[in-house]
Design a protein that fits this description.
The structure is a homodimer.
Chain A lengths: L1 E9 L2 E10 L3 E9 L3 E8 L2 E9 L4 E5 L2 E3 L6 H13 L1 E13 L8 E12 L11 E7 H9 L6 H11 L2
Parallel strand pairs in A: 4-9
Antiparallel strand pairs in A: 1-2, 2-3, 4-5, 4-7, 5-6, 5-10, 8-9
């Protein structure tokens, strides 16, 4: 993959035009979306999880999701997970267990999301929501979360992956 | 969400710059990636599933995925699913069961992937692989697929969602 040009540079979010060499001397032109890495966490407490409901402008809808956020320059994914838990739902977590990572849609982006299960939750006094995120925190029974995936109330890919990894068999 | 300009127009794949109005008179500028809709299918036969292993240039790696593909102009998702099963793994499916849909990463793209479980498989004589896809078909035991997710050999989000929906509890 060889970069030809920058199509967009919005700081953390970049879009590049690239050339890809295939066997047989064929060259294709494509774009790559580079949004930087991210984390997503499923906060779990006894029989309950915490989700957020937020507005997503690309789909012009409110949807249910696990708390998540992008990794700042120089930050380790685990640090981001702690920070975003406070920013998005106002909780500190004693334990963040690594649950692997996912590629969200590797056909055109290099985006990776590191997954964590969050336990040992306590309210944080540093709670402040990001300006551009309109977020409602919801506490949902584990069984209800599984039902919400089955009946299509949860349609966010990272959230489904997290639930599978944290609450699956 | 108001479109300001086209940043990239590659036919099916578009990137747009948009303005978003927030409560309180705040306006943000963002981009939206519009790759068009897609489908992904988990072909299941007795105790086995079929996956593909393919090179993804944005991450410069070979990864395991469920067969998938983008919806052509005027095509219904179910038609795409039948077509892509033949193109990617060379099978016709008698039954394609709808398993809902996912948003891959709604923070910056409107991409939606419709999910299907494919059964009643038989080899197709129309099998032809797409030029830009280097694909190996692999037949894997259901239990092995679940292990591959647990141990991180499968990291593709849509594939994890499909396995959860088709092989989950």
């Amino acid at each position: 993959m060889k970069k030809i040009s920058n199509i967009y540079d919005g700081g953390r979010m970049k879009v590049e035009q690239v050339e890809i060499d295939l066997p047989g001397g064929i060259t294709l032109e494509r774009i790559v979306v580079k949004p930087g890495g991210a984390v997503a966490m499923l906060p779990v407490e006894n029989d309950f999880c915490y989700l957020i409901r937020q507005y997503r402008y690309p789909i012009e809808k409110y949807i249910y999701e696990a708390p998540a956020g992008t990794i700042d320059e120089g930050e380790k994914p685990l640090e981001t997970a702690h920070r975003e838990l406070i920013e998005e739902i106002g909780f500190r977590a004693e334990e963040l267990t690594e649950k692997g990572y996912i590629y969200t849609t590797p056909g055109y982006t290099n985006e990776v999301i590191y997954l964590y299960e969050a336990r040992g939750l306590s309210p944080s006094d540093e709670f402040k929501s990001d300006l551009d995120e309109l977020i409602e925190v919801v506490k949902v029974k584990k069984d209800e979360v599984r039902e919400m995936i089955a009946d299509g109330r949860i349609v966010d890919a990272k959230t489904i992956c997290l639930v599978y990894k944290c609450l699956g068999e």
